[in-house]
Recover the amino acids of this structure.
């Protein structure tokens, strides 16, 4: 049947963006639409509007553009052709909504597999087909949910991979594997935040932005949201957890970048009182800015450049308006020289380092011998935790109170995380300790000569040095230099060993001095 003066429009839809790249769903629909138009004697479709949105929503850019086109061409006899009724929608409510939107423009809806009509029988069949489409969508959703949740319960992550991982097929299974060099960068960032090398998320953000291999936005920055997501993702610890689907923490099949214990340290740090954000203007000329206190008022010193005749020169100064030293600058070079000299005085004698090495080695060996006892205690605690989990599961199953169930579920999550932590501790305790020399030699080398870290000239090394050596901010006055500050535990141990060594054997031996006759 040929009809003149008709304006034909096509509409095709697939559910996801992925389907526009894989397969030929849109192309196949358009071919069917054009074939139907030819068979009906309609002119070829003026335009075919497309969408890559789920049929459960009416919010679709392609459909909205089509409605605008129909309104604009209201004076023409417009026919909208779809490939199948489920391409229009996969939800009964949405189906009637988009049908009404098309009808409101005066256009007629047609389809190769179904003839739309206004009779009670036509409306019944249309409603039935719309219900069937909705049922198929819901059934597909249930099947996908069950398959994905099953994989999660088996320890396989099945959502988008974090930047530090990528999917690869291993032994027939699609699993996460580290993606280098991003994985190494993320590991350093996570461990750095856990051990205090980075005090704030802003410092982690700056580290990632300064790392050439880490993916960034077009302007070269890393969003703080990505940093937070990275710090809170249990995937980096080799675990799997997805609470929206009631999947508690489980050991994953992928290799973690950090230990679960490190992950828990990160979470504890995130839950601490927030610290002031790290300064964005730190540079290599001011490594002690915001790290050293003015000896007159206790305020952290600032730093800036002072313009000279031929160049700019870096200076430190006190920021406290109430201080007598406010804005009175003092040389960076002199301050750094005094700090370097102070570090040189921290170097213990070689024999003290040797004694410390022997003491640490003995402790190391004793720890290896006592691993069986620790494993037994951990297994006992793990068994107790497992019984508590079983008891909570029974209470959840038998409780009619929704609020009580939610409280039980929150406690269950905590116990599952505790069980995962204990499991990792048992595994690590049972492993043979690494070689003492290869593990602690670097640390002992640092304790013997901390000033070498300052000599690297690296801003990050110089700023972390103060935290590694001293437990608190140093106080400084240009006239008298640095005030003595309390050192960290490793340096205290070396000082104690040195003091006891001197007390045991003095320079003149154990016998009292005697006079010559």
């Amino acid at each position: 049947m040929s009809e003149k003066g008709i304006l034909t429009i096509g509409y095709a839809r697939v559910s996801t963006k992925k389907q526009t790249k894989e397969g030929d769903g849109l192309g196949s629909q358009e071919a069917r639409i054009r074939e139907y138009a030819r068979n009906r004697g309609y002119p070829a479709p003026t335009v075919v509007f497309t969408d890559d949105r789920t049929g459960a929503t009416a919010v679709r850019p392609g459909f909205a553009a089509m409605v605008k086109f129909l309104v604009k061409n209201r004076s023409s006899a417009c026919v909208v052709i779809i490939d199948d009724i489920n391409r229009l929608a996969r939800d009964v409510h949405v189906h009637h909504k988009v049908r009404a939107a098309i009808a409101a423009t005066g256009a007629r809806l047609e389809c190769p597999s179904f003839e739309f009509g206004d009779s009670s029988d036509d409306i019944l069949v249309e409603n039935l087909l719309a219900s069937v489409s909705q049922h198929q969508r819901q059934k597909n959703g249930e099947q996908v949910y069950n398959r994905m949740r099953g994989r999660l319960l088996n320890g396989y992550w099945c959502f988008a991979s974090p930047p530090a991982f990528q999917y690869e097929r291993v032994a027939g299974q699609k699993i996460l594997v580290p993606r280098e060099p991003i994985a190494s960068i993320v590991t350093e960032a996570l461990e750095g935040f856990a051990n205090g090398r980075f005090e704030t998320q802003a410092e982690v953000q700056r580290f990632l932005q300064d790392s050439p291999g880490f993916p960034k936005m077009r302007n070269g920055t890393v969003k703080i949201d990505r940093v937070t997501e990275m710090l809170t993702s249990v995937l980096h610890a080799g675990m799997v957890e997805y609470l929206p689907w009631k999947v508690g923490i489980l050991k994953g099949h992928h290799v973690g970048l950090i230990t679960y214990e490190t992950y828990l340290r990160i979470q504890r740090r995130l839950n601490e009182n927030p610290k002031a954000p790290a300064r964005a203007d730190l540079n290599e000329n001011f490594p002690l800015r915001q790290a050293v206190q003015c000896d007159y008022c206790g305020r952290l010193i600032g730093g800036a450049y002072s313009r000279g005749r031929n160049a700019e020169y870096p200076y430190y100064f006190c920021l406290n308006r109430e201080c007598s030293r406010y804005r009175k600058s003092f040389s960076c070079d002199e301050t750094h020289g005094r700090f370097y000299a102070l570090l040189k005085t921290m170097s213990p004698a070689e024999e003290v380092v040797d004694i410390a090495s022997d003491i640490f080695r003995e402790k190391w060996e004793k720890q290896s011998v006592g691993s069986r006892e620790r494993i037994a205690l951990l297994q006992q605690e793990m068994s107790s935790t497992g019984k508590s989990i079983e008891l909570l599961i029974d209470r959840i199953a038998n409780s009619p109170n929704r609020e009580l169930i939610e409280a039980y579920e929150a406690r269950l999550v905590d116990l599952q995380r505790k069980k995962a932590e204990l499991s990792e501790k048992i595994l690590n305790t049972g492993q043979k300790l690494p070689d003492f020399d290869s593990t602690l030699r670097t640390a002992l080398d640092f304790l013997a000569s901390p000033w070498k870290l300052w000599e690297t000239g690296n801003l990050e090394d110089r700023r972390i040095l103060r935290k590694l050596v001293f437990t608190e901010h140093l106080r400084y006055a240009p006239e008298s230099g640095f005030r003595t500050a309390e050192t960290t535990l490793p340096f205290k141990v070396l000082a104690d060993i040195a003091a006891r060594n001197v007390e045991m054997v003095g320079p003149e031996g154990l016998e009292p001095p005697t006079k010559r006759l």
Remarks:
- The radius of gyration is 35 Å.
- Residues 8 and 43 are 6 Å apart (CA to CA).
- Residues 504-517 have pLDDT under 50 and may be disordered.
- The chain is about 50% helix and 15% strand.
